Amino acid sequence: MTGIVEEFLALKEESDADVLAMQVGDFYEFFADDARLVADELDLKVSEKSSHGSSYPMAGVPLSELTPYLKSLVERGYTVAVAEQRGDDDTTREITRTATPGTLLEATGADARYLVAVVREGDAYGLAAVDVTTGAFRLTEVGDERTALAELGRFGPEEVLPGPVLRGDDDFCDAVRDDADATLSVHGTEAFAPGKATHRVREQFGEGALDAVGVEPEGPGVRAAGAALDYVAETGVGVLSSLTRVQPYRADDHVSLDPTTRRNLELTETMRGDREGSLAATLDHTVTAMGARRLEAWLVRPLQRRGELERRHDCVAALADDALERDAVRETLDGAADLERLAARCTSGSADPGALKRVVDTLERLDALRERVASSPSLADSPLGDVLARVDADDAAALRETVDDALADDPGGETGIFARGYDETLDELAAEHDELVAWFDTLAERVKAESELSRVTVDRNKTDGYYLQVGHSQTDRVPDDYREVKTLKNSKRYRSAELDEKERALFRVEEERAARERELFDELRAEVAAHASLLQDAGRALAEVDALASFAEHASANRWTRPELRDDRSLDVSAGRHPVVEQAVEFVPNDARFGEGRRFLVVTGPNMSGKSTYMRQTALIVLLAQAGSFVPAESAEIGLVDGVYTRVGALDELAQGRSTFMVEMQELSNILHSATADSLVVLDEVGRGTASDDGISIAWAATEYLHNEVRAKTLFATHYHELTALADRLDGVRNVHVEVDDESYASAGSEEESGPATGRDGDVTFLRTVAEGPANRSYGIHVADLAGVPDPVVSRSRDVLERLRADEAIDVRGGSEGSEQVVFDLGSGELRTDEGATGESGGEGEDAAGDGEDDAAALDSEAAAVLDELRNTDVNNSSPLDLLQRVNEWQKRLD
């Protein structure tokens, strides 16, 4: 290995990172195994370099192009160390930072990027969440693991630092990986020590910070906060100074939304993992990245504080009622820079002159917005002015003027950053530079005038510096004091003593000017960084106005209404709609009413009729109201809830050793343990993943427990018709159903108790309307028909269902004469077989199964097993297709 590769490998070992990017001149280079890795991941070209008898792979990217490659690697889960070259030579390098999923400063767009440290002390958990890209630092303590995981899920962290105790807790770590989809990183145990962590927090936020925010020193929350700060400092991103305040919060300030509920309600992404089609995407009309972040944060962290929610509703109302003012506000916001992230870039030293120019422009927009709101008759009395007043207007104006006075109109490149008059020394160097550039610009014309040359050009490159270029036909006219420096195919290049002198002077001035500009820019950037807290306040104020304007824009365009918030447990929604589905189809509104004696709704009706949509829309209306938005309804009175819990469908999680039914029961368990009388519970089927008798029993018992013990407002959709009887037994239970128009279907023959349809000419229209009382049938075979199940299967399903309900024999079709027929008694669950029967149940004394133990003993073990399975099959609650498949299997086994 050559010396440079040896240095690379030594730095790589020192960093303990997955990948090392080492500066070598104008490139960041990757060597050895790292070169192969980045080539595979990022489609870079690998070179084979040989030196001193060794050959090694190498890949590289220009200094200015590292950021996109760095982001791609980190977003794929790699940690990347960056080694910078020190000084003008290339012999000294040191690692300046390590980019990890939670400390990637280069993040862009609307998504927050949290690093969360978690500590457990006994039953208590402390969580500290930091977004290094915006300077946000939040801290809380909760009383159990379930709540801790729910809080983690709200932040959606990129990286989690578990404390020493939690590192050995496989269940917790697996839950973080599965539910939060975060990278788990190990940080030094000493960073979590109470004394060191408390010192680190006080050092960062001030001696009185913990007392001011009411956090117990050396508690689990402070231990988590200290470890997070230590990790950020160790990774070297240089943004600690942007972490200007710690924001403690209580988990019960917000509505509890566990990972299952966030997924089922598709708050930020659909079940397929797409953002398009989610609630956040539907409501996002923001015009800034920071506004989009704020809107999403409100949706995943709804509030329980009525005062703050009504303030948001007041702002939305003012903006929604005046379209012209709303458009003006949004136009002013459009193009505003992400001040939260610019503050972090300034403190880390990575902000360029263009970034500071955007700070000026955005602070000007803040002033314009403040004036607009103050002068608007429709907005002046709203709380929007209070939102903007959180930013000190005088401090913001002073910072804006300082930066604006310093920078040129277009501060690009290494020079030309500053306006004339800002710095006397810089002005002198700029004037001298301009004079020398002018000398070179006019050199060609002077040479032509002073010599016999008619065609001569002056140019400059890195190899030859400045030179005069003359065509071969005129080289005999070149003045004697010019010396030739290069011969080309059609011309020659020359230099002179005067040109050498002017070039040296120009290079000196360029170097001095660039050095002075760098010095001044570092000072100006440090000045802006010193106002990081001001920029963050301004960014948060603009983000809030943007999110509120987005709510107003959507409410105005979609006829949403302001909800009336109440302190009781009522919920009365008139003509409610699903906020996402209504964007795609003509939607049928429905009421949802809860109150005294009505807190548990059993929802029945056919598949595909809209039960699930109805329940989800009710949950989303409550959630939107407590996020500060208007809601899709004619009117809505909403008693604030402390949590929304849902169980909708189930999927196998076989990799975690959990079947469909196990997942279903774990979700039910979480709801029964977590929900309170102030919660809203949505259950879309319970007990369907097991045998019918077990399933009905579980669903029945869960209903009783939710009604009698938890007492939460509950929507429970089920196909177990038996549960509708609970409305007569439990005071708070009521039945509702989704209506169906089935006149033509019934006339062709329906699936009523008197006998299902045997024809296929009937039609069913799902009205999507929710009415009082239970449904009288499920139309499962009709849905199978709509789904495209082959005609013979649909027809046979109807025949089987008719015979089962009529307690008639079913021909188990084996394709031979005298094939065996079975009779299933729906009342007793008994099965009878009758060989050679003609479709009617056997007569007296002709029961093929016999009437005593002798007959049972005569059966072989396989036939007895089939009979046992038949006897235990719940026909009413099994799908026709499932029944046919079972019958086919039984026939084969009996044969």
TrEMBL record:
* UniProt-recorded name of the protein: DNA mismatch repair protein MutS
| Acidic residues bias (residue ranges) | 742-754, 843-855
- Write out the GO biological process terms: mismatch repair
* Residue ranges occupied by any DNA mismatch repair proteins mutS family domain in the UniProt entry: 679-695
Lineage top rank: taxon: Archaea
State the residue spans of region: Disordered.
Answer: 742-763, 826-855
State the protein's purpose.
This protein is involved in the repair of mismatches in DNA.
Starting at the broadest rank, the lineage of the source organism is:
Archaea, Methanobacteriati, Methanobacteriota, Stenosarchaea group, Halobacteria
Spell out the family assignment given in the record's similarity comment: Belongs to the DNA mismatch repair MutS family.
PANTHER family registered for this protein in UniProt: DNA MISMATCH REPAIR PROTEIN MSH1, MITOCHONDRIAL, DNA MISMATCH REPAIR PROTEIN MUTS FAMILY MEMBER
Q: Which Pfam families match?
A: MutS_I, MutS_II, MutS_III, MutS_IV, MutS_V
Which Gene Ontology molecular-function terms are recorded?
A: ATP binding; ATP-dependent DNA damage sensor activity; mismatched DNA binding
Residue spans making up a coiled coil are 499-527
